[in-house]
Amino acid sequence: MSFDFDAVVVGAGAVGLACGRALAKRGLSVLVLEKEPHIGQGVSSRNSEVIHGGLYYPTGSLKARFCVEGRRALYAFLDSRKVDFRKCGKLVVATNETEVERIEAIFQQATANGVEGLEHLTGDQARALEPGLNAHAAILSPESGVFDSHGYMLALEGEIEAGGGSVVVSTPFERAEPLPGGGYRITAGGEGGATLTTRLLVTAPGLASQAVAARIEGYPAARIPAGHFGKGVYFRLTGKAPFERLIYPPPIPGALGTHYRKDLGGQAVFGPDLVYVETEDYAVDPAKAEEFAGYIRRFWPGLPDGALTPDYAGIRPKLHGPGEPQPDFQLHGRDVHGLDGLVALFGIESPGLTSSLAIGEAVGEMLAHD
Fold first, then answer.
1. Helix count (H) and strand count (E) of the chain?
2. Which of 13, 25, 220, 264 has a CA positioned 20 to 30 A from the CA of residue 49?
């Protein structure tokens, strides 16, 4: 049987585009479908644009493996494609004696994960690097950085197109049905939309992962993990950025917590926090500035009064609710859902952006024999 495409990817965020690139590199004809008018308008555009070293994730987990592999591949990709980045390094800071044990556990975890170049720092050594920092002790991770995520996604899109593929925006996925001889019939585009056929199907639509899987005929409902919306807001500093490196206190339950970064434009940004919400609400409550200021002064006592302004919010596609342990990425292949030629991604939150190239390669491998 002949198909319109070898592979269709649902979702043109960083992970969907990286999957499309990985499949195009294998010589497949690829179509990426995106419901929004532009690529990367969801989770991929509402985050910290941090390149994570791979410090925090349980050894052997997909998050640990993909973060380290993805980070190494990402720096090489950005450098070769002239996409802006800054390998500024990160300080994980214990602001008092009680937090030292927690950052030491992170050091041990990161070492087990193969993260390079880690150093223990005393408070004096940390302040020598970043005057004004309140640090009882710290860990230096030189592999962490910040980058232009939109430039990155445009480069991925360009590579898909260079390989003969297409990225089509304003074209929501409607449904998919398995064909008797293998492959899928896809309906996309809303009112008066198009129907096309594909041999392989990848779903990477971020917050819509559960809804998209439910519209694939034959996907067992019991195999679709429950999803939660984890909202985080960011505040921007009025005035000069106080530190060159990323500054992270110990993580909070369910997330890495409110941290500091100097963005590529040289401005200081703090966030995100974590609040569970029911809908995609991207409003930032200015009244939260006081709560943020109290948290930030734990590691930067010199934060001036009234210097924080509301910036933006993001929502992360979480697979755990409040108080529940944070699970791993989920890449569902035939062994999970019983459908040939399909990989469905769930819970691709942080460090999904850093991990995206590695996730794309893993998806390519999963489909190589289908």
1. 9, 20
2. 25
- Is residue 200 scored above 90 in pLDDT? yes
| DSSP character string of 132-200 | T---SEEEEETT-EEE-HHHHHHHHHHHHHHTT-EEE-S--EEEEEE-TTSSEEEEESSTT-EEEEEEE
Residues 6+ apart with CB under 8 A from 312: 46, 233, 234, 282, 284
Q: How far is CA 346 from CA 37, 80, 209, in A?
A: 23, 30, 6
Q: Give the end-to-end CA distance of the chain in Å, rounded to a whole number.
A: 14
Q: How far is it, in rounded angstroms, from Cα 354 to Cα 8?
A: 23
Residue 21's alpha-carbon distances to 5, 130, 284, 309, in angstroms, are 14, 39, 34, 38
**What digits encode the pLDDT tens for the residues 283-303?**
999 999 999 999 999 999 999
**The pair of three-digit structure tokens given for residue 319, joined into one six-digit string:** 């697979």
pLDDT at 351 over 90: yes
For the chain, the average pLDDT equals 96
Q: Are 135 and 91 in contact (CB under 8 A)?
A: yes
In the predicted structure, residue 193 carries a pLDDT above the cut 90: no
Proportion of the chain in helix, strand, coil states, percent, rounded to 5: 30, 25, 40
Q: Alpha-carbon distance 146 to 120, whole Å?
A: 22
Residue pair 139/107 in contact by the 8 Å Cβ criterion: yes
pLDDT for the residue numbered 370:
78
The confidence score (pLDDT) of residue 76 equals 98
DSSP letter at 46 equals S
Helices (H), the chain: 14-25, 62-80, 100-112, 123-129, 149-162, 209-214, 288-296, 334-337, 352-367
Q: Is the dihedral of CA 264, 272, 209, 330 positive or negative?
A: positive
Q: What pLDDT is stored for residue 217 in this prediction?
A: 98
- Is residue 299 within 8 Å of residue 95, measured between CB atoms? yes
The whole-angstrom separation of Cα 142 and Cα 115 is 10
DSSP E strand stretches across 222-307: 228-237, 246-248, 259-262, 268-271, 275-277
Closest by alpha carbon to 121, among 134, 136, 111? Answer: 136
In three-state secondary structure terms, 316 is: strand
